[in-house]
Structures are given as C-alpha cells and as structure tokens.
Design a protein that fits this description.
mainly beta, 53% strand, 10 strands, 118 residues, single chain, 5-stranded antiparallel β-sheet, 5-stranded mixed β-barrel
Length: 118
C-alpha cells in the first residue's frame, strides 16, 4: 500500500510514478488512471524481486530485510523477507542457499512494479 508522490508521462502513454510506501519510495509503472496523492497498491510478482546477501545498495527500489522463512518447493525456494513491518514474498531458483535470519537486500525493478488504484 502507498500514496502517489509524483507522476511522469501523460495519460495514454507509458506513465511512471514515485510511490511512498512503508518500506520507502518506489519507482513504478502506472497501469491505471492514478493521480498524485491517490492511495494505491504496488504489485510485484515474487519471482521478479531480486535478492542479494548483505545490505541494500543505494539503488532505486532497494531495501534491506531479514529472511523470515525459506520453503523448498522443488522447482523454487519460496521465501518470506521482513522489511520493516512488511512481509515480502520472494521466489528464488532452488540452487540458491538462504537461511532464516540472514540479512539480505531486496530490489524491486521498476519495470516490474505496477501501480494499481485501490
């Protein structure tokens, strides 16, 4: 959940938004007629969230978190990462090794962040 802080582009063209969320400001694509100050939801598919070990770099849409759970499902690892008070779901290739309590950085590529009006 968040609030649109700024919009770029015009209606009918590729629009981008800066969305204030509880985990920080995220740069996103806009799929609806969102306006500045609107309450919105930012959607990112779990397989599109990038995870690296260690602290978050100063990249756009990067945040620090801690691994809460890791479940091996055969074709993927289904992970829950705590970022502040938010549970973020991440899906990784099963060859990766990740442990509960590990400090990680998550990056939400802006091309995969989609703003939807609520």
């Amino acid at each position: 959940k968040g609030k649109v802080a700024a919009l770029d582009g015009s209606s009918g063209r590729a629009r981008r938004a800066q969305v204030e969320t509880s985990i920080g400001v995220l740069s996103c694509r806009v799929a609806s007629e969102a306006r500045q100050s609107d309450s919105v939801t930012v959607a990112v598919r779990p397989e599109n969230v990038e995870l690296t070990r260690g602290s978050a770099a100063q990249n756009d849409n990067a945040v620090a978190g801690e691994v809460e759970s890791v479940v091996y499902l055969g074709n993927l690892l289904d992970c829950s990462v705590m970022v502040g008070d938010e549970h973020i779901r991440v899906q990784l290739h099963p060859s990766q090794s990740l442990a509960r309590g590990e400090k990680v950085a998550l990056r939400f590529p802006s091309e995969h962040c989609l703003v939807m009006t609520t």
